[in-house]
Amino acid sequence: MAQDVIIIGGGHNGLVCANYLAMSGMSVRILERRHIIGGAAVTEEFHPGFKNSVASYTVSLLNPKVIKDLELQKNGLSILERKINNIWPHPDGNFLAFPPGSENLKTEIALFSQHDADALERYFRDIEMVAEIMRELLLQTPPNIGGGLRDILKAAKLGNRLRKLTLEDERIFLDIFTKSVSDFLDFYFENDRVKAAFAFDGVVGNYADTKTPGSAYVLMHHVIGEVNGKKGLWGHAVGGMGAITQAMAKSAIAKGVQIDLDAPVSEVLVEAGKATGVRLKSGAVLKAKNIVSNLGPKLLFTRLVNEKYLPEDFSRRIKRFKMGSGTFRMNVALKGLPQFTCLQNQARATGDHLTAGIVMAPSVAYLDKSFSDAKALGWSKEPVVEMLIPSTLDDSLAPPGQHVASLFCQQFDPEVDWEKHRDEAAETILNIIEANAPGFKDLIVGQQVLSPLDLENIFGLTSGDIMHGHLSLDQLFSARPMLGYGDYRTPIKGLYICGSGTHPGGGVTGAPGHNSAKEIIRDN
């Protein structure tokens, strides 16, 4: 007997979708091609005795409703707050820190610019105004262009929400979606080091510089989260990011969801314009009333769906869906804590600063040159490097007295021959850290290197894109992945998509899985 739903891919959105579908009474089966559930949100041993969140690496965007509905805390999830959100080392031995709490941050920024400290209140008011609108939209299916009355009403409801804004707030809303992060920040800040710190969020997972139009939205995308009910914080899942997906899997299994590991899908089967099942790489055929893909849309429609089943205009556009976040990941096993020069020379530095994301990108010019070098050379000789040492908060990840570090690095061209240049690029990254923390290389006892090619081959992230597609204006909301298919449906009846290539985009949010499930339930 055919099941109600087969979900291709056991990443976090697939797990979220499965949970909600099972809650509605549907029979659900997840097919995961790897040996472990969780997609890119997994914890694995990468060196004997050392484990880490090997791809996705930090928590903030996971939606509170998803946490509550799936009872993730009852299923073992515990999230710790970073004691300091981020720090930015500077070449002169100083650093800028972003501590929790607006007054603490204001005091810190005043060390660099009283003007910028005074501007913080206005900046956060404006950011939070837009963030609140975005939070309202996260768990809503966008109006589908070309849809019926329901979609017209959705669009009208959104229009009414925006009409309640003042004229200046409407301008700010437009700024966020159209301006570069550099132009947007110029409205508020004058100090280059302060601007660079805020601008960092505009280039994370965004192969672009700070002058690229639309990068202000990428900043917004990264600040709409919360940890334990506290907005704007970043945190650590005890046991690594795999603790999130393990809790989701536990919740799903309790609802009757079947999870198959080592079960790669080679083809979506279509009969008379309707998805009817899947063929595994083993040759086995599995049937279901509904097929749901947690893969990136470009991967799904260029690899698993025969082009003959797709409208020509859809196929032409999906092939040109913009991909490539320019991301390079490393996981490093350390025999001790690194000693950052900036934390040795400043009286205000404490041990809490090593719980932060340590961002090696001290100026706006550095951010921009990193991108221009990558475009010219394949990767920057001074890339943007963020180091997180989660073992400072979670001693389960490494042997006593030892540590693990996540290196999250930007501005690496996905088109480079990474089989040839992987190790050279990794050495470039380590050199950046060594310059900021002399002796760092001597602490390394093991490492895992994940180029854009490795992110694609291991986790199915096309072109190494951690967002499943650019977060540009032409690929957001009703246009994600494409106008006419912004509602988690596809040109093939019974085939749905639930991953980060749909609204509201990338990050470990659970929102696409939640929203897709609502539409599948509505259709069934």
Describe the model:
The protein has 524 residues and is α/β, with parallel strands linked by helices. Among the domains are: 202 residues, FAD/NAD(P)-binding domain, CATH 3.50.50.60; 132 residues, no CATH class. Helix content is 37%, strand content 20%. It has 18 helices and 20 strands. Strand 6 and strand 7 form a beta hairpin. The protein is globular, with a radius of gyration of 22 Å. The two termini are 17 Å apart.
Topology (SSEs and partners):
Layout: E1 3-8, H1 12-23, E2 28-31, E3 43-47, E4 50-53, H2 64-69, E5 79-81, E6 86-89, E7 95-98, H3 102-110, H4 114-138, H5 149-163, H6 167-178, H7 181-185, H8 192-203, H9 215-223, E8 226-227, E9 230-231, E10 235-237, H10 242-254, E11 258-260, E12 265-271, E13 274-280, E14 285-293, H11 297-304, H12 312-318, E15 327-334, H13 341-344, E16 357-360, H14 364-377, E17 379-388, E18 403-412, H15 418-436, H16 440-443, E19 444-450, H17 452-459, E20 495-497, H18 511-523
Parallel strand pairs: 1-2, 1-14, 2-11, 6-16, 14-20
Antiparallel strand pairs: 3-4, 5-10, 6-7, 8-9, 12-13, 13-14, 15-18, 15-19, 16-17, 17-18
Strand content: 15-25%
Query: Helix amount, in percent?
Result: 25-40%
**Structure annotation, total helices:** 18
Instruction: Please tell me what the overall shape is.
Output: globular
Distance between the termini: 17 Å
Which features characterize this protein?
524 residues, alpha/beta, FAD/NAD(P)-binding domain, seven-stranded mixed sheet, 18 helices, 20 strands, globular
Brief rundown of the structure:
The chain is α/β, with parallel strands linked by helices and 524 residues long. Helix content is 37%, strand content 20%. Helix 1 runs parallel beside helix 18 and helix 6 (167-178) packs across helix 9 (215-223).
